[in-house]
Amino acid sequence: MVVIFLGPPGCGKGTQAESLVNNNGFVHVSTGDLLRKEINEQTDLGCKVQAQMASGQLVEDQTILSLITKKLDSLPGNKVLFDGFPRTLDQARALEELLQALGKKIDCVFDFHVDEKKLYERIVGRFACVKCSAVYHDPSIMPKVKGVCDYCGSHEFEKRSDDNVKSLSIRLEKFKEMTLPLRSFFEEMKVLKKIDASKSVSQVREEIVSSLGL
Ligand code: AP5
What we know:
With 214 residues, this protein is an alpha/beta fold. Helix content is 48%, strand content 15%. It contains nine helices and eight strands. The strands form two sheets. Strands 2-3-1-4-8 form a five-stranded parallel β-sheet. A three-stranded antiparallel β-sheet has the order 6-5-7. A hairpin with a 5-residue loop joins strand 5 and strand 6 (135-137). It is globular. The site of BIS(adenosine)-5'-pentaphosphate (AP5) has 36 residues, from helix 1, helix 2, helix 3, helix 6 and strand 6.
């Protein structure tokens, strides 16, 4: 089963992805995470994209597709969840071809809808554990014990370099310009499913899980 999460920055794609991975056996393919790994390891690719990502610009299709091709070559299991990919029409067409070659197809694309004011609140409040990457939100999703990660006990947290108002406005602009056209692309394929992602984390999860018949 191949599932895609489509939606603007901060709509909750990563949060819902984590749940499908932990509870439903999906393999998570997030191009944002793959790029951040390259940056943390200071590879040539990471150094090339670091400033682009921090400012909120999209990374070139070719770079993204080379990361995805490498990832698909070594993918375990049959349930794959793409989070934040594809983000352009060229990426979507390339994904269709790559999947076809593997005898797979796109089964469902969840189209996350959240109003812009809420996206700003979610992004400005987001922070994550340095050690295990668990994602929180100040003030709505805080660790149970102040300053201690619920999952690994670490005391260190960080914010993403692109989680600021200036970068977010560029990310939203790019989303409208380059990614929104994918709605009609997936609608024509009859795989698009609209989700009201302004609801609570558990309500959004329920809707996704029941749509997938899990
Ligand atoms: P990427 O890492 O993909 O980021 P994004 O799409 O901008 O999405 P985010 O990770 O910011 O948000 P999310 O929807 O996952 O929200 P989350 O669940 O964390 O991409 C980053 C950059 O990499 C791009 O700008 C670009 O430069 C580059 N890039 C990546 N892929 C690319 C591609 N394919 N092509 C070109 N460039 C690419 O939630 C946000 C906050 O809200 C959290 O604090 C969370 O706790 C909270 N929250 C979540 N759900 C709820 C809820 N239901 N109720 C209340 N709070 C909630």
